[in-house]
Design brief:
The protein has about 475 residues and is of the alpha+beta class. It has 2 domains: about 1-220 and about 385-475, 3-Layer(aba) Sandwich (Aminopeptidase), CATH 3.40.630.10; about 220-260 and about 315-385, 2-Layer Sandwich (Alpha-Beta Plaits), CATH 3.30.70. Helices cover about 35% and strands about 25% of the residues. It is built from 14 helices and 22 strands. Strands 3-4-8-5-9-20 form a 6-stranded mixed beta sheet, sandwiched between helices. A 5-stranded antiparallel beta sheet has the order 14-16-12-17-18, with helices on one face. A 4-stranded mixed beta sheet has the order 19-11-10-21. β1 (about 1-5) and β2 (about 10-15) form a beta hairpin. α7 (about 265-275) packs antiparallel against α8 (about 280-290) and α12 (about 390-405) packs antiparallel against α14 (about 455-475). The longest helix has 18 residues, at about 455-475. It starts with a strand and ends with a helix.
């Protein structure tokens, strides 16, 4: 095995090996499907689902495997939002702090009418598992649960405790489980470092892994309410300043005014390494983006891909609209929710002020809409946390397992263009790394979308990945 790389965060695994990696034993394959099915088919969306039901399903699996009830703790603010914290005991007397794995078990809202298949039935079809949460992130939750059960069955004793926190409200709701546990049960969350499978893992092309992304930093999430108001009036006498028109004009300005391109050490390192393994056309675009000065045409061409565009800049987009009170009246108020994903180094309040400047309309107000539903005239002014260090005790085991399962696949640090629960553990001073094993085709990212799915073979390989990686982390 050979390790090579460029820059402090560009950690790349190079190898000419072509041997097939280890396969998931049939006993664990059956159990992994059983757990995955149970998780997918338990509705845990915020509006009418129950995170607690998923926690209880996981707890039942652990109890059946022989875990002590004392090591399976349900804790949360209400009956629907109970998180499950699992403690897998390591070597008695070990002075090493635990490894903490966090995984949210809530999902984005899914309506049956939007889907070809029932989102809350695990359907295996044409080599894929379909269902809400198959990519985000009940696959990762099931991976870790099955892996811990397998390790327990084998009598494996790690060099330290392993803690798994299955948590609520990462995707929405007022009771984020990681934040709640850190505040109310911090003793359960004490850890040396965090592994978060959310949004990380191999990128596939035609089913073959071409790179494995590790989340080394992430954007900051923020929602803003953009509100237009006026006296309204009778719809038979249209006015150019009616609230809906004003709001739509503001959103058109937002669409036409992208935030400036800005690379940080993580996104730059990621592009440097991605250029080596991508298509010739995209590689040429990346070279133009990285040039000094950057090539405007390369930036424009690279930005046509929504994922690539999100890597280069802060993004803001309208996600919800509301306005009017009667079909025969001019609207006296209209509002839009504008969702922003903010580059590291910038605050939510800075972006709120930037939006005000883009709209350039004193008749509009731009207010901050917090995770708990509070609306305020200003937003938090703190910048996001710096990336954690590239720790050898985290990355060396990762290299070893990647070489076993996906020989020759580079491990590339990346900036998550969304946001995850790592923002809470990072803010609490615990180094947090987005590391996962679920391979997703580069052109088939269906997180938060309809007909969400994952390749069947990719799911089972991700189960094997976590089993091997947890053991390699804790030898």
């Amino acid at each position: 095995m050979k390790v090579c790389g460029v820059g402090i965060l560009a950690v790349v695994l190079c190898s000419s090996a072509v041997a097939q990696g280890p396969q998931l034993p049939e006993q664990d394959r059956v159990l992994a499907r059983q757990i995955f099915k149970e998780f997918i088919e338990t509705n845990s969306q915020d509006s009418n689902g129950s995170v607690t039901a998923v926690s209880e399903a996981a707890r039942k699996e652990f109890l059946a495997a022989g875990f002590s009830p004392a090591d399976l703790i349900l804790a949360g603010p209400n009956d629907r939002k109970q998180n499950l914290v699992v403690r897998y005991h390591g070597t008695p007397g070990s002075r090493l702090k635990p490894v903490l794995i966090i995984g949210h078990i809530d999902v984005v809202e899914a309506r049956r009418s939007d889907w070809t298949l029932d989102p809350y039935t695990l359907t295996e079809k044409d080599g894929y598992f379909y269902g809400r949460g198959t990519q985000d992130m009940k696959d990762g939750d099931a991976d870790v649960v099955e892996s811990l059960i397998r390790m327990h069955r084998e009598g494996y004793v790690p060099d330290r405790d392993i803690t798994l926190a299955l948590t609520a409200d990462e995707e929405g709701g007022k009771s984020n489980g990681v934040a709640w546990l850190l505040k109310n049960r911090p003793e359960l969350m004490a850890a040396d470092f965090v592994i978060n499978p959310d949004g990380a893992g191999p990128t596939l092309r035609n089913g073959k892994a071409v790179e494995l992304d590790v989340e080394a930093t992430e954007k900051t999430y923020a929602d803003y309410l953009v509100i237009a108001t006026n006296p309204g009036g009778h719809s038979s006498v249209p006015r150019p300043d009616n609230a809906i028109y004003e709001l739509m004009h503001a959103l058109e300005k937002l669409e036409a005014t992208p935030f400036p391109v800005e690379l940080n050490e993580v996104s730059r390192a990621s592009l440097i390494e991605s250029e080596k393994v991508t298509t010739p056309e995209r590689a040429a675009q990346i070279r133009g983006v990285l040039a000094t000065p950057p090539d405007p045409k390369a930036i424009a061409d690279f930005s046509k891909d929504p994922n690539d565009n999100a890597t280069l800049r802060t993004t803001c987009v309208a996600t919800m609209l509301k306005g009017g009170h009667a079909p025969n009246a001019l609207p006296g108020e209209a509002q839009a929710n504008v969702n922003c994903r903010i580059l590291p180094g910038h605050s939510q309040e800075e972006v709120r002020k930037t939006l005000i400047g883009i709209f350039n309309d004193p008749k509009l107000t731009v207010e901050y809409y917090s995770d708990d539903g509070t609306v305020s005239p200003t937003a938090p002014d703190r910048q996001s946390q710096a990336p954690p260090p590239v720790r050898a005790d985290v990355f060396n085991p990762l290299h070893q397992v990647v070489e076993q399962l996906w020989p020759g696949t580079p491990v590339i640090p990346s900036m998550m263009v969304g946001a995850s629960d790592s923002i809470y553990t990072t803010a609490a001073g615990i180094p947090s790394y987005g590391i996962g094993g679920a391979g997703i085709d580069f052109d088939d990212d269906r997180m938060h979308g309809r007909d969400e799915r994952i390749r069947v073979d990719a799911y089972y390989k991700s189960v094997e990945f976590f089993y091997l990686y947890l053991k390699a982390l804790t030898k």
